[in-house]
Amino acid sequence: MQSATEFVEQRRPVGGRRSSKRDFIVQVFLQQEGHLAADKLVELIRAEDARISRATVYRALQWMVEAGIARKVDFGEGRYKFEHSYRHPRHFHLICKTCTQSYEFMSSDIEALIEEVAEARHFAARQSVLQIYGICVDCQSGRRIERVTAPTEALFARDALRIAIATERSGLEFYTRAAALTGDARGRRIFRRLAAEEKEHLGKLETRYRELLTADPELESHPTFLFFKGAAHGLFAAGTAELRQGADDRQALLIGIKCERGSHKFFKRYGDRFEESEGKRIFLEFADEEREHLDLLIREYRSLLERQKTKRQPRRKARASKTRR
Ligand SMILES: [Zn+2]
Ligand SMILES: [Zn+2]
Asked: How many Å lie between the centroid of ligand 1 and the Cα of residue 245?
């Protein structure tokens, strides 16, 4: 995991002058979670070192925005707030007009859409901001639940694991069903083997999920952070539905190939988009596993076609020799 110092060093402008006051301000800022008004940061800094002036803090904030260490967000309160990007993936905001609280969420589908539009218009997009204004659930119900701000990176990892777990579960169901209906002994062995692998991976992912919860028992009380179009029920669910309608050995393999390919592409595409984080690693590791399954199924499919061909061939040869005679 990249340290805060490495993170800042990577973004420090080449040949830029170093300043120990600024380094101190950056360090304090990176320790904060959530969104911070400039005044609040001034308060925090001056509590530590009263010799640092308000103007120095403001300049340091501006420097961080330019270096990509801080993001400046307009929450519609007549002033900007700042959030750092260290271990804090890109995200969008839901903003309550009643209590001015903001809630973060992430959607790679929205990002992809923004990219598509920008590309079509030959627009070099630098930053996209999506603010959704409205009334939060606490204000609607009149019950305010005091929540501590959860570290975004942990929420991101939690949701990435949830998606991966849902996919493993649907994969396990798919391969168990495929093994039960396949008539071909070799195909059945492969499906059983894949089911066993999915089960093992599922166990590992669940352990990782429990570890996250042990580190932060409040983690599950936070709302969903990461949103995906249609992946919440597991990427193999559609394949299992297809199997239920009936499939022969060849079709079962083809459906499996389609699911694994979809799953691999899904985790690879999103994993590549994410910034360096635990969530990204979970996605890319998972993409690799799916790739291996995909290769295995493709080999199996080819072998099945070969076997079916050679089974038919002797008869054709027999016929051919008859006609020759
Ligand atoms: Zn509210
Ligand atoms: Zn934010």
From this structure: 48
Distance from residue 39's CA to the centre of ligand 1 (Å): 22
Pair of tokens at residue 249:
């050995």
**209-250: pLDDT as tens digits:** 999 999 999 899 888 998 887 676 778 888 999 988 888 888
Backbone angles phi, psi at 80, to 5 degrees: -85, 155
Q: How far is the CA of 68 from the centre of ligand 1 (A)?
A: 29
In the sheet that holds 36-37, the strands lie side by side as 36-37, 80-84, 70-74
Which positions of the chain have pLDDT values less than 50?
323-325
Q: How much distance in Å is there from the Cα of 3 to the middle of ligand 1?
A: 34
The pLDDT of residue 319: 53
* Residues comprising the chain, all counted: 325
Q: Closest ligand to 105 CA?
A: 2
Structural domains of the chain ordered from first start: 1-86 (1.10.10.10), 88-146 (3.30.1490.190), 152-314 (1.20.1260.10)
pLDDT, position 325: 46
pLDDT at 313: 66
Secondary structure (3-state) at 220? helix
